[in-house]
Each structure stands twice: as C-alpha cells, then as structure tokens.
UniProtKB/TrEMBL annotation:
Pfam families: DUF1949, Impact_N. Residues 140-195 form the UPF0029 domain. It comes from Lentilactobacillus parakefiri. InterPro entries: EFG_III/V, Impact, Impact_N, Impact_N_sf, Impact_YigZ-like, Ribosomal_Su5_D2-typ_SF, UPF0029_Impact_C, UPF0029_Impact_CS. This is YigZ family protein. Residues 19-122 form the Impact N-terminal domain.
Length: 221
C-alpha cells in the first residue's frame, strides 16, 4: 500500500428516505474484486424485495480498478454518483452498495443522482474516515533517568509509546513514518544529548483519525 491512504473507520450501514423510497447503503473495506463481488451478492440476498442494488468500488494503491453498476436504474444515475463520492473522499479499497426500495414516487434522473450520492456521502459521514499510515517501529534504548524527559517529549508530539521494557536500561518502542524519521531522531538526539541508541524494526499499518476539515486545511481550500 501507499505510505498513507484513507479508508472508512469501520464497515457499516446507513439509511435515508427520499420521497418514500428507502436508500440503504452498505459500505465495507475490501482487498480484492472477489471480496467485493461476494459482499454485493450477500447484500442482494439479504434484500430480495429491493428494486435495485447499485454499487461502486475502487481498488489498488492508485485506484486502478474502478467498478460501478446502475443495476437497472437509468444509465449514469446510480453507480457513477456512488463512485464519485468515493473519489471525492479519496477512499481506497472501499465498496459501497446502495439498495433501493422504491416508494412509488419517481425521482427523475437528477433526483436519482442526488439520492444515490446522498445515501453514500451520509454513510461516509456516519462511519467516519481514518488515515492508514505505514510506520516503522523504532526501539529506543535509554537510561532510567531519561525516561520522564523522553515520555514528555513524545506526548507533546502525539507519538504514543507502543511498548516499554525495563532491564538494565529502558527500551521504548515507538512507530514513525519514513518522512518523519530523520527529524524525530534529530530531536531526540538533541533532547537526550546523544546519550541513547536506537534500532529499526518492521513496518506496521496504523489507523489515525481523519476529518474532511483537516483534509481541506491541508489542501488550502
């Protein structure tokens, strides 16, 4: 995966009603097209009386796999609006299936586009977004009298301590992205007057809370 990407916080379902039609959106993280197809099939089985089960998903680090289906709705009024919401929120490896129970009132092409878009976007808002960050674990070996100073510094930088081991010295495990590594080590070197050692470990995916407002601020919009 990329060093950083966005996805939904958790799988889930959200429902809206528009002019007596029910729009039920199931959203899930996916790793493959087979998994996506399996979820679409399951949602369809669970809603045998539904009029439509429209969907869209994006897969791959560069979103090179993009699929959408109107499932019987007028062309371009369901699958594409769902897909556009996923794109707008930059959600990677995510599937959205919007099930419609027709309420007897026709919405028209524009109304359908808005309905499927709203069903998807409100589900994203309901579930929340997280940033997946690929970080490398670093083991810092320090003296006991340095621990409080290091702990305070890490807290000030919002860097959680993943593990602490107490032996002849203290070993503190943290995780840091590649782009932040050099700067962090420099700061810790200055903080501890170069009286410590460190060892790089393996990489692990961490989930960090993320918001649309934060994304807008980062982009300058």
């Amino acid at each position: 995966m990329k060093n950083e990407s966005l996805t939904i916080k958790s799988n889930g379902t959200h429902e809206i009603e528009i002019k007596k039609s029910r729009f039920l959106c199931n959203m899930a993280r996916i790793d493959s097209e087979d998994q996506a197809k399996g979820i679409i099939e399951q949602v369809t089985k669970e809603n045998p009386k539904a009029n439509h089960n429209c969907y869209a998903y994006m897969l791959g680090d560069d979103d090179h796999i993009q699929r959408e289906s109107d499932n019987g709705e007028p062309s371009g009024t369901a699958g594409v609006p769902i897909l556009e919401v996923l794109k707008m929120n930059e959600l990677h490896n995510v599937l959205a299936v919007v099930t419609r129970y027709f309420g007897g009132i026709k919405l028209g092409a524009g109304g359908l586009i808005r309905a499927y878009s709203n069903a998807t976007s409100t589900t994203v808002d309901s579930l929340g977004i997280v940033k997946l960050v690929n970080k490398q674990k670093i083991t810092l070996t320090i003296d006991y009298n340095q621990f409080d100073k290091l702990k305070y510094f890490l807290e000030s930088q919002s860097i959680p301590i993943e593990e602490t081991t107490y032996t002849a010295k203290i070993q503190v495990v943290i995780a840091v992205s590649d782009e932040d590594f050099d700067s962090l080590i420099t700061q810790i070197t200055n903080l501890l007057s170069d009286q410590f050692s460190y060892q790089k470990g393996g990489y692990q995916i961490f989930e960090v809370p993320y918001s649309r407002e934060k994304r807008q601020n980062e982009s300058g919009n």
